[in-house]
Amino acid sequence: MVIERIDEQLPGAILDRHAFRGDQTIVVGRERLLEVVDFIYREGFQQLMDVTAVDGGQRDPRFDVVYHLLNLASQERLRLKVRVADQESVPSLTARFKSADWSEREVADMFGIPFDGHPDPRRLLMWEDYPGHPLRKDYPLDGGDAFCSQDIGVSYAPDARSLNG
Amino acid sequence: MAELNVEPTRTSDSDRMIVNMGPSHPVTHGTLHIVLELEGEIIVKATPQIGYLHRGVEKLGENLTYQQFIPLTDRLNYCSSLMNNVGYTLAVEKLLGIQDPPRSRVLRVLCSELARIGDHLVCIGINAVDIGAFTAFLYLFKERETIYDLFEMMAGQRLHSSFTRIGGLFRDIPAEFEPLCEQFLESCPRAVDEMERLLTHNPIWADRTKGVGAITPENAISWGYTGPCLRAAGVAQDLRVAQPYLDYETYDFDVPVGTTGDVYDRYLVRTEEMRQSFRIVRQCLAKLKEIGPGPVIIDDYKIALPPKEKVYTRMESLIHHFKLIMHGIDMPVGEVYSATEAANGELGFYLVSDGTKAPYRIHVRPPCFPIFSSFDEQVKGRLIADAVSILGAMNIIAGELDR
């Protein structure tokens, strides 16, 4: 297993790990992310399938940046997580994986997590002066009226989650 | 034509022309906007602008129950919505740790493969139209109508099927399904042959596609390519074989692989994949006969709704129905990533559950998102006309691209 080899070669890099329904997850510190990614890339995890994030709400640190990697030779999958606080940045993986380019832009756009060393840090889905980051938990479901520059005091569902809760 | 990687000779910015391709250009399907920087006819830079369709499907998903999200998956890749239904319900079932009944598994494979054929028919047909070959498109679209008739028989809907349920399917197929499906299996391969006769050895088609958008296997992997685009580049990665789900390992089919990764190879790979899907559909029909009638949804009323006749006649079932609608399914706390081989490549759903009735986080990994991100590299140094054929062969579906 690749996780054991990371433990052997890079002691202390894995802060936490868990397995659920066959999915292997490791949590690494953001300062050691590039080192771990370089190592597992050489181990055969050459396809970065996906980058996304999870907003923990009130939790500290607030965000998980989640990477899904695939080893095409052994068909092994690995989930890698980095925990970051609000406004804290994560090193960009664009130098290693070309697919990181847009995925990281999407995460930065939707969650407001900056990526250090990203060659093109523009928003991807929303326009440049769009207010806020829509996938954060504190962003209202209706999004307000993005075309109105000032608050008009009308919200369709101020606490949308409660509608279903 | 194939070796046309002309380096621009003039460097002054004033010589450059900016051309907006889309969102109203026929190739860009009304939702894609690509800003092309041109020097003469040569593309120097392409900047895709996505987000025109952003519906916030992930945000919506976090505020709906697991069951309520199924109709939203239809709207991702609307050309093969059944595959999105299957992919999503498999993810939820992985989270729950359950498996649907055998008959449902065969039906899921059957509808996925029909959807794959439909998706490839559209992709090749539209790509041919974009390049200027209209007749092939007509042959193919007639067959897609039959596929939609079959979907209507299965799910009651032609486009937005919402056919699957957590733990199985909405309902079994009707008796008229099989004769029409047999008929389709007779006529569609003939239409595909006809299309091949029109396109495969056509010199204009070859000129417009051979060598266009060629990509090395290493680059394709680095860009996160999956599905036909990756296989056309020579990487034999197919999740149905590599990481089988829905008992795909019990079906007999081949994985076509290309060599150059250009538009022509993507076309050939898709064409052959349709033939392989015909084989799988035939095997599905045989399996259905073998299995015989049986349940298509699990018999666990904590997950799947009880049948209506029970709800109306038994108190216990009425309570189950009420509890499921009002409080949802009891989800374990955890996170899963489940991937299926959709028509376009790996369709992944990443679900994080906090144990409540709505997913805490739901993320879609659409296949065309990473593929489209390589657009600039693919078209740089080529003609505008090549951008059209490359865009078509990437099979960009705006619904899943900007979600």
Overview of the structural elements:
The complex is a heterodimer of chains A (165) and B (403). Chain A is an alpha/beta fold. In chain A, 21% of the residues lie in helices and 25% in strands. Chain A has a five-stranded mixed β-sheet. Chain B is mainly α. Helices cover 49% and strands 12% of the residues of chain B. Chain B contains 17 helices and eight strands. Chain B has helices at 57-61, 70-74, 81-96, 102-131, 135-155, 177-199, 203-209, 217-222, 227-232, 239-242, 263-291, 308-313, 315-327, 368-373, 375-379, 384-394, 398-401, and strands spanning 17-21, 33-39, 42-49, 164-165, 168-169, 334-342, 345-353, 361-365. In chain B, the strands form three sheets. Chain B has a three-stranded antiparallel β-sheet. A three-stranded antiparallel β-sheet of chain B has the order 6-7-8. In chain B, helix 4 runs antiparallel to helix 5 (135-155) and helix 4 runs antiparallel to helix 11 (263-291). Chain B starts with 16 loop residues before the first strand and ends with a helix. In chain B, 52% of the residues are buried. The model of chain B has no long low-confidence stretch (mean pLDDT 89). The interface between A and B is large, with 39 and 45 residues.
Give a brief rundown of this model:
By secondary structure, chain A is of the alpha/beta class. Chain A has helices at 2-9, 33-42, 100-111, 160-164, and strands at residues 14-20, 23-28, 47-55, 63-70, 77-84, 90-91, 115-116.
Main attributes?
heterodimer; A: 165 residues; alpha/beta; 5-stranded mixed sheet; B: 403 residues; mainly alpha; 3-stranded antiparallel sheet; globular
